[in-house]
Amino acid sequence: MIFEGSGVALVTPFDKNGEVNYYSLKKLIEFQIACGTKAIIILGTTGESATISKDERKKIINFCVCLVGKRIPVIVGTGSNSTKTAKENSIEAESLGADALLVVTPYYNKCNQQGILNYYKTISNAVKLPIIAYNVPSRTGVNIEPQTVLKLSKIKNIVGIKEASSNLKQIAEILKIVPSNFSVFSGDDFLTLPIMLLGGKGVISVTANIYPELVQNMCDFALKNDYFNAKRISKYLQKINECLFLDVNPICVKEYMNLIGFNVGDVRPPLCKPSSEILRKLKEVKHEYEN
Fold it and tell me: Are residues 200 and 184 in contact, defined by beta-carbon separation less than 8 angstroms?
């Protein structure tokens, strides 16, 4: 098992010129480790992987792996709409010292279940690292069905799935049929506790960029079957979870982080800053959590 509890879907900080801000990236990583986060996930959706160049990918992976120094796992997003590209990304991440891979389904192509299975088999055969599949139909246009997840769970280095379908019925079915050593992680912060109640092992969290200790504590309580305290934290985080998804991720989380002094810069085009109305709501939630 790669980790249990909270893994942060880390934002990629940019400077005022839109270049990767490694000074801020270092601060973010050290903050996460100090707060007890169990894994750092880079170059995922929240890390704006779609607008990160090939050269930037290599530099970011190398920087994060060297900085973390095996203190906690570094999991690298390597998925693509092209099987060939995803395979190359995965081989590169392994060569640079990543501890595991997060591989999103092929997007835009809308392949069928056999195509999804073939995609993961190709990547699995190319690397030795543990692989977490990533199901996010709202972004990719395809859904990994429970029976396909079962087939994936039988591939030796595919060890889990990040489930962001928001379909609790589907997630319950997956947890019912996969082996106990196959980890199911929430990909939706507002569903973390329900998924863990069903048997999930934790979350790959956007909210953990801001409140890593609270998200990890909630997961710890849930893993210990202390649902009273897990529910208490989940309820406390409800408003922040909701406000971070008022616009397309990671627009709101980066804006909120800037408001509280993390200096992560803007999102890259074609994403853009939130509307004045959303910004107002973010400021209201910030004020509420500060008081």
Answer: yes
Q: Catalytic site residues? A: 134, 162
Task: For residue range 94-145, list pLDDT tens digits in order.
Answer: 999 999 999 999 999 999 999 999 999 999 999 999 999 999 999 999 999 9
Domains of the chain: 5-230 (3.20.20.70)
pLDDT digits (tens, 9 = 90+) for 30-49: 999 999 999 999 999 999 99
Q: CA 55 → CA 31, 81, 103, 123, 160, distances in Å?
A: 26, 19, 19, 21, 28
- pTM reported for the whole predicted model: 0.97
Alpha-carbon distance of 8 to 10, in angstroms, equals: 5
82-91 long-range CB contacts below 8 Å, 24 or more apart? Answer: 82/106, 83/118, 83/119, 83/122, 83/123, 86/119, 86/122, 86/123, 87/122, 87/123, 87/126, 89/57, 90/123, 90/126, 90/127, 90/129, 90/131, 91/126, 91/127
Closest CA to 56 of 75, 76, 71: 76
